[in-house]
Amino acid sequence: MLTLEELASLAKKHGLDFLAITDHNQMVSPAVLARIPGITLIPGVEWTHYRGHANFLGLAKPYDEPFFTNTDEDMQARFQSARDRGALIVINHPQDDSCGFQFDLTKLPFDAIEIWNGPMRESNLRAIGLWHQMLAAGRKMPAVGGSDFHRENLFQILGGPAWAFMPGRMHPMISWLRYAQGRVLSPSPPMAPRWISPVVRLLWAVQPPGKRA
Is the separation of the CB atoms in 134 and 113 below 8 Å? Predict the structure, then answer.
Protein backbone atom coordinates (compact mmCIF):
# COMPACT_ATOMS: atom_id res chain seq x y z
CA MET A 1 0.00 0.00 0.00
CA LEU A 2 1.40 3.42 -1.00
CA THR A 3 1.64 6.47 1.25
CA LEU A 4 0.15 9.78 0.07
CA GLU A 5 3.64 11.01 -0.77
CA GLU A 6 4.41 7.90 -2.83
CA LEU A 7 1.04 8.10 -4.59
CA ALA A 8 1.54 11.78 -5.45
CA SER A 9 5.03 11.08 -6.76
CA LEU A 10 3.72 8.27 -8.95
CA ALA A 11 0.91 10.49 -10.27
CA LYS A 12 3.39 13.20 -11.25
CA LYS A 13 5.57 10.57 -12.93
CA HIS A 14 2.56 9.54 -15.03
CA GLY A 15 1.93 13.14 -16.08
CA LEU A 16 -1.21 13.74 -14.02
CA ASP A 17 -2.12 17.22 -12.79
CA PHE A 18 -4.58 16.12 -10.13
CA LEU A 19 -5.58 12.98 -8.28
CA ALA A 20 -8.67 12.14 -6.24
CA ILE A 21 -7.98 10.24 -3.01
CA THR A 22 -10.90 7.89 -2.38
CA ASP A 23 -10.24 5.20 0.18
CA HIS A 24 -13.03 2.76 0.97
CA ASN A 25 -15.19 4.35 3.69
CA GLN A 26 -12.15 6.25 4.96
CA MET A 27 -12.17 10.03 4.72
CA VAL A 28 -8.94 12.00 4.23
CA SER A 29 -8.35 15.42 5.79
CA PRO A 30 -7.66 18.25 3.30
CA ALA A 31 -4.99 19.45 5.74
CA VAL A 32 -3.03 16.29 4.99
CA LEU A 33 -3.52 16.61 1.23
CA ALA A 34 -2.32 20.23 1.25
CA ARG A 35 1.16 19.12 2.32
CA ILE A 36 1.84 17.32 -0.98
CA PRO A 37 3.67 19.74 -3.33
CA GLY A 38 3.43 19.77 -7.11
CA ILE A 39 0.04 18.15 -7.60
CA THR A 40 -3.59 18.89 -6.74
CA LEU A 41 -4.97 16.17 -4.46
CA ILE A 42 -8.76 16.11 -4.21
CA PRO A 43 -10.38 14.87 -1.00
CA GLY A 44 -13.06 12.25 -1.32
CA VAL A 45 -14.29 8.86 -0.18
CA GLU A 46 -15.45 5.74 -1.98
CA TRP A 47 -18.70 4.92 -0.22
CA THR A 48 -18.53 1.15 -0.11
CA HIS A 49 -21.45 -1.20 0.46
CA TYR A 50 -21.89 -4.83 -0.49
CA ARG A 51 -24.59 -3.67 -2.93
CA GLY A 52 -22.55 -0.99 -4.66
CA HIS A 53 -19.80 1.64 -4.56
CA ALA A 54 -19.84 5.38 -5.30
CA ASN A 55 -17.29 8.18 -5.15
CA PHE A 56 -18.13 11.35 -3.22
CA LEU A 57 -15.55 13.84 -4.51
CA GLY A 58 -14.45 17.33 -3.56
CA LEU A 59 -15.01 17.45 0.18
CA ALA A 60 -13.67 15.73 3.26
CA LYS A 61 -16.89 14.86 5.05
CA PRO A 62 -19.91 14.11 2.84
CA TYR A 63 -22.01 12.83 5.75
CA ASP A 64 -21.90 12.76 9.55
CA GLU A 65 -23.36 9.30 10.08
CA PRO A 66 -21.45 6.00 9.82
CA PHE A 67 -20.89 4.73 6.29
CA PHE A 68 -22.89 1.53 6.80
CA THR A 69 -26.62 1.46 6.11
CA ASN A 70 -29.36 -1.03 6.94
CA THR A 71 -32.12 0.31 4.69
CA ASP A 72 -32.51 1.94 1.29
CA GLU A 73 -33.66 5.07 3.12
CA ASP A 74 -30.38 5.25 5.04
CA MET A 75 -28.43 4.84 1.81
CA GLN A 76 -30.43 7.56 0.08
CA ALA A 77 -29.78 9.84 3.04
CA ARG A 78 -26.00 9.38 2.63
CA PHE A 79 -26.23 10.33 -1.05
CA GLN A 80 -28.48 13.31 -0.34
CA SER A 81 -26.17 14.55 2.41
CA ALA A 82 -23.21 14.38 0.02
CA ARG A 83 -25.19 16.21 -2.67
CA ASP A 84 -26.34 18.93 -0.25
CA ARG A 85 -22.74 19.53 0.85
CA GLY A 86 -21.55 19.94 -2.74
CA ALA A 87 -19.88 16.61 -3.50
CA LEU A 88 -19.49 15.36 -7.05
CA ILE A 89 -21.10 11.91 -6.95
CA VAL A 90 -19.97 9.17 -9.35
CA ILE A 91 -21.50 5.68 -9.52
CA ASN A 92 -18.52 3.32 -9.64
CA HIS A 93 -18.14 0.18 -11.81
CA PRO A 94 -21.93 -0.43 -11.94
CA GLN A 95 -21.67 -3.75 -13.80
CA ASP A 96 -18.67 -5.23 -12.01
CA ASP A 97 -18.99 -8.97 -11.42
CA SER A 98 -18.07 -8.83 -7.73
CA CYS A 99 -19.23 -5.37 -6.60
CA GLY A 100 -21.68 -3.99 -9.14
CA PHE A 101 -24.22 -1.32 -8.25
CA GLN A 102 -27.49 -2.97 -7.18
CA PHE A 103 -29.39 0.04 -5.83
CA ASP A 104 -32.10 1.77 -7.89
CA LEU A 105 -30.31 4.54 -9.81
CA THR A 106 -33.58 6.34 -10.49
CA LYS A 107 -33.94 7.11 -6.77
CA LEU A 108 -30.47 8.54 -6.17
CA PRO A 109 -28.85 11.92 -6.83
CA PHE A 110 -25.59 11.53 -8.74
CA ASP A 111 -23.58 13.41 -11.35
CA ALA A 112 -21.84 10.79 -13.49
CA ILE A 113 -21.57 7.07 -14.09
CA GLU A 114 -18.30 5.20 -14.52
CA ILE A 115 -18.32 3.21 -17.76
CA TRP A 116 -14.59 2.44 -17.89
CA ASN A 117 -12.97 1.10 -14.73
CA GLY A 118 -9.31 0.11 -14.85
CA PRO A 119 -8.31 -2.29 -17.65
CA MET A 120 -10.94 -2.75 -20.35
CA ARG A 121 -13.00 -5.89 -19.73
CA GLU A 122 -16.49 -7.29 -20.22
CA SER A 123 -17.98 -5.55 -17.18
CA ASN A 124 -16.99 -2.19 -18.70
CA LEU A 125 -18.78 -3.10 -21.93
CA ARG A 126 -21.89 -3.89 -19.88
CA ALA A 127 -21.52 -0.53 -18.13
CA ILE A 128 -21.45 1.20 -21.52
CA GLY A 129 -24.64 -0.70 -22.35
CA LEU A 130 -26.26 0.52 -19.13
CA TRP A 131 -25.26 4.09 -19.95
CA HIS A 132 -26.72 3.70 -23.44
CA GLN A 133 -30.01 2.56 -21.90
CA MET A 134 -30.04 5.69 -19.72
CA LEU A 135 -29.44 7.91 -22.76
CA ALA A 136 -32.14 6.13 -24.77
CA ALA A 137 -34.56 6.68 -21.88
CA GLY A 138 -33.83 10.42 -21.98
CA ARG A 139 -31.48 10.65 -18.98
CA LYS A 140 -28.43 12.53 -20.27
CA MET A 141 -25.88 11.42 -17.72
CA PRO A 142 -22.15 12.17 -18.19
CA ALA A 143 -19.90 9.11 -18.44
CA VAL A 144 -16.42 8.93 -16.93
CA GLY A 145 -13.54 6.51 -16.52
CA GLY A 146 -11.33 5.80 -13.54
CA SER A 147 -8.19 3.79 -12.88
CA ASP A 148 -9.46 2.53 -9.48
CA PHE A 149 -5.80 2.28 -8.56
CA HIS A 150 -4.81 0.27 -5.47
CA ARG A 151 -1.29 -0.85 -6.34
CA GLU A 152 0.83 -1.13 -9.48
CA ASN A 153 0.71 -4.36 -11.42
CA LEU A 154 0.87 -5.51 -15.03
CA PHE A 155 -2.72 -4.50 -15.84
CA GLN A 156 -3.49 -1.61 -13.46
CA ILE A 157 -1.93 1.82 -14.10
CA LEU A 158 -2.49 4.98 -12.11
CA GLY A 159 -4.39 7.32 -14.43
CA GLY A 160 -5.45 4.59 -16.82
CA PRO A 161 -8.01 5.80 -17.73
CA ALA A 162 -7.99 9.41 -16.52
CA TRP A 163 -10.24 12.46 -16.85
CA ALA A 164 -9.23 15.10 -19.41
CA PHE A 165 -10.41 18.71 -19.61
CA MET A 166 -10.18 21.33 -22.35
CA PRO A 167 -8.58 24.62 -21.22
CA GLY A 168 -11.20 27.33 -20.75
CA ARG A 169 -14.12 24.97 -21.31
CA MET A 170 -15.17 23.69 -17.91
CA HIS A 171 -18.18 21.43 -17.70
CA PRO A 172 -20.52 22.30 -14.81
CA MET A 173 -20.11 18.75 -13.53
CA ILE A 174 -16.54 19.56 -12.53
CA SER A 175 -16.89 23.25 -11.70
CA TRP A 176 -15.59 22.49 -8.20
CA LEU A 177 -12.22 21.79 -9.86
CA ARG A 178 -11.72 25.29 -11.24
CA TYR A 179 -8.67 25.77 -9.06
CA ALA A 180 -6.95 23.25 -11.36
CA GLN A 181 -7.05 26.14 -13.90
CA GLY A 182 -8.51 24.14 -16.74
CA ARG A 183 -5.26 22.37 -17.55
CA VAL A 184 -5.45 19.52 -20.06
CA LEU A 185 -4.99 16.19 -18.29
CA SER A 186 -3.48 13.05 -19.73
CA PRO A 187 -5.85 10.30 -20.90
CA SER A 188 -5.26 6.56 -20.75
CA PRO A 189 -2.52 5.51 -21.09
CA PRO A 190 -1.00 8.40 -19.07
CA MET A 191 2.20 8.42 -21.14
CA ALA A 192 0.28 9.19 -24.35
CA PRO A 193 0.17 12.69 -25.94
CA ARG A 194 -2.25 15.02 -24.18
CA TRP A 195 -5.58 14.92 -25.95
CA ILE A 196 -9.23 14.71 -25.02
CA SER A 197 -10.21 11.08 -24.45
CA PRO A 198 -13.17 9.42 -26.23
CA VAL A 199 -15.09 9.14 -22.95
CA VAL A 200 -14.82 12.90 -22.39
CA ARG A 201 -15.76 13.60 -26.01
CA LEU A 202 -18.92 11.60 -25.35
CA LEU A 203 -19.49 13.59 -22.18
CA TRP A 204 -19.39 16.86 -24.12
CA ALA A 205 -21.73 15.49 -26.77
CA VAL A 206 -24.27 14.24 -24.24
CA GLN A 207 -24.03 17.04 -21.70
CA PRO A 208 -23.04 20.31 -23.40
CA PRO A 209 -21.52 23.13 -21.33
CA GLY A 210 -24.00 25.22 -19.38
CA LYS A 211 -26.55 22.44 -18.90
CA ARG A 212 -27.04 19.86 -16.18
CA ALA A 213 -29.25 16.80 -16.09
Answer: yes
Residue 34: exposure state from Cβ atoms within 10 A (0-12, 13-18, ≥19):
exposed
How remote is the C-alpha of 187 from its chain's centroid? 14
Low-confidence residues of the chain: pLDDT under 50: 170-171, 173-213
Instruction: Please count the CA atoms within 13 angstroms of the CA of 185 that sit on its side-chain side.
Output: 23
Question: One-letter amino acid identity for 99?
Answer: C
The span from the CA of 138 to the CA of 193, in Å, is 34
Q: Which CATH architecture has domain 4-206?
A: Alpha-Beta Barrel (3.20)
Angle at the Cα of 182 from the Cα atoms of 201 and 189, rounded to 5 degrees? 50
Q: Give the percent of the chain with pLDDT over 70.
A: 76
Q: In this structure, are strands 40-49 and 112-117 parallel, antiparallel, or unpaired?
A: unpaired
Contact indicator for 139, 131 with CB cutoff of 8 Å: no
Q: What is the pLDDT of residue 210?
A: 41
**pTM assigned to the model:** 0.79
